[in-house]
Amino acid sequence: MTIAGIAALSYIVPCAYIWYAQRQLIFIPEAFVDRTPADVGLAFVDMRIPLAEGSAIAAWWLPSGSADGASAVLLYLHGNDGNLARELRRLQALHGYGLPILAIDYRGYGRSTGPFPSEARIYDDAVTAWNHLVTTQGIEPRRIVIYGHSLGAAVAVELALRRGPACGLVLESPFTSMADMAHLEYPWIPVDVLLDQRFDAIRKIGRLDVPIVLVHGTADREVPSTMGARLYGAAHAPNRLVMVDGAGHEDAMPKGGESLQRAIAELARSCTS
Q1: Count of CB atoms within 10 A of residue 40's CB?
Q2: Looking at the domain covering 2-271, what would its CATH class be?
């Protein structure tokens, strides 16, 4: 009985910990923003987008520098850790496509104010950013390309379902669901039962009817590239999968090369056609 009790306790305790601490395990925000787009030579506007509760989302607006007011606009949603200061390499590469970008920090990240993140709050933050583009900046929904990296890809899928129709989505290093990710780390624990932070992109992506570009590095050690392939297979809209040979979790887009450039350029052109 003692051995059985110890065995049961050794199983119950980590289950209870994962259930109780799941938000702290998933969301790893940093408050200190030590770099801005100016550090990589990009002009930008530092913005605050207010929320109804009195807090605000910190955002960077990176104008394209083009006089073409009909160009596509990128709404950038980052992953689960750090803040926008960690996204400069990716933002710089994306800015090279000639598209204006609105990049946001979710509540609890960077200079955004408000409570600790949750799945519901992050979805609401993305909706707030979308509404700002459409209502305040006067951007037509059909001109907006939603770009999500890692966890941000799951947020992009949800946003496209809640608002739109958008021009399309670009999903970089996306995972299928948070439960699938947790299974990789804790294969012996019933995470499907324990998790209430689901980010279940695989169940949602087939409901979208906008073009989707998925990009994934073949050497991604955080999110297996098979997850990107599964999302590609589950999507019913016109979509394209770009596998970047040798790229990891953070550099699939900067290393995407001509095939990715062509895919994003074609998507952007479709926004104004």
Answers
A1: 13
A2: alpha beta
